[in-house]
Every structure is written in structure tokens, then in C-alpha cells.
Amino acid sequence: MCLVDQGDRLESIGDSLVVVLAMPVDAIIQTLPRLGPIMHRQALVMDTGSTKREVMATAAAARLSQFVGGHPMAGGTSSGAAGARADLFDGQAWFLTNPDAPDAVRRAAKFVEALGARPVVLSDRGEEHDRLMAAVSHLPQLAASALMVTVERAIGSANLQWAGKGLRDTTRLASSPGQMWSSVLATNGAEVKPLLRELAAELLKLSDQLDDREAIEKFFNEASRAKASCL
Questions:
Q1: Which of 103, 126, 99, 125 shows the shortest CA–CA distance to 42?
Q2: Model-level pTM?
Q3: Which residue ranges of the chain lie beneath pLDDT 70?
Q4: Buried b / exposed e across 148-181, counting CB within 10 Å, b at 16+?
Q5: DSSP labels for 138-168?
Q6: Angle between the 189-207 and 178-186 helix axes, to the nearest 10 degrees?
Q7: Residue 34 sits in which domain range?
Q8: How many domains does the chain have?
């Protein structure tokens, strides 16, 4: 196994038969065109980026015939080797896509299964993945970060020591690094923007209904039913 980190020569991947690009989306997009001349021509190339459409288009333009777009639904708020865990992928879904390379997808599926993950193969070139992730991953990240910023601005950082478990749990995602999320959102803005506006409209409506007991109960009951589906 060859680990190539920041500052290392990309050419050191040599004759590796499996190449996994685990880096921010913009770095993946920059790296893909450089792989063809330096890697084994039968090497399976995968990425772990949180968006897929631009990655898939870049891989196609680079003529990487054994490329499979991937996204493991596992991770944490820590980056680098310090955040690694042996059980990180156990039982977790790992999205895979490239309808033009079914053999490569089968190889990728076996690879992620060996890591303990559960492969989920999509039949398009990232459109469905990015639509889903905008709702179940990117919007929650933005909501948690916006909530944390709003609370800190309202009461000051010194008073955050009084925060209870509710705020701590709700804003756990706010610890995520900005470098990663800037590239994720830049490559999925078309899907995220309408959801952000819908969330903002929902909050604005709530701000005018705080004394409407029936409306508030209806809102909380709808949220509770939805939450039961993702436990």
C-alpha cells in the first residue's frame, strides 16, 4: 500500500492497482487529469468526494476508463490520520457510480465490502447522488453551522459554557473544517440553494406563529414523524 499525502509526489502511486482519492472535492477535480500518464492503465481509480457530478465529468474528460465515483456515508468532524478509526466504514453505505464502467464498479464494490461498507450502486453520473446529499448532508451541515454562529453572536462566546446537551448535539457538525465544505458547496450549489431558501422560509413562517399553539404543535408533530423515519 502506498500513501500519498500533501507535499508528496503524485508519481509515487507507481503500479498501484487501486487508487483512492480521499481529499476535498476541488483537489480531486485538480488531480484527476494528472493520473492518466503516471498510473497503471488497469488501475481502479475511486474518489470519496461529497459531490459527484463535477467529479464524474472531470474523470470522463480525462479518459479514466476505470474510474468509479464514490462517497462513503461515514466520517467525522476531524480531518487527517488523527481522525481515522478501524471501524469507520462498518455497515455504512458507500455510494458508487459510473454506468459506463460496470466492471470497474464491480471491482469497487468488492473493495468497499472488504472495508466493511455496504455498496450502493447508482445508475447515473452523480445527479441523483448530489440531489440526495444536498438534503440529507449539505443542508444539515449549513443549518448546524448557522445555528452555532447565531447563538454565539447572540450571547457571546463566554456564555456558551452554559449550553446544554441540546445545543451541543444539534451543533455537532459545526466543528467541520471550512476548507472541505467550501469545495462541496461550490460544486452542489444548484441543489443546495433552493433547500436553504425553503428552510429560511420555514423559519420565517415560524417566527410569525410562535403564539399559535395549533400551528406550532402541527409543526413539531410533522417533524417528529419525519424523524422516526431516519432513526
A1: 103
A2: 0.87
A3: 1-2, 75-83, 231
A4: beebeeeeeeeeeeeeeeeeeebbebbebeeebb
A5: IHHHHHHHHHHHHHHHHH-GGGGGG--HHHH
A6: 100
A7: 15-71+89-125
A8: 2
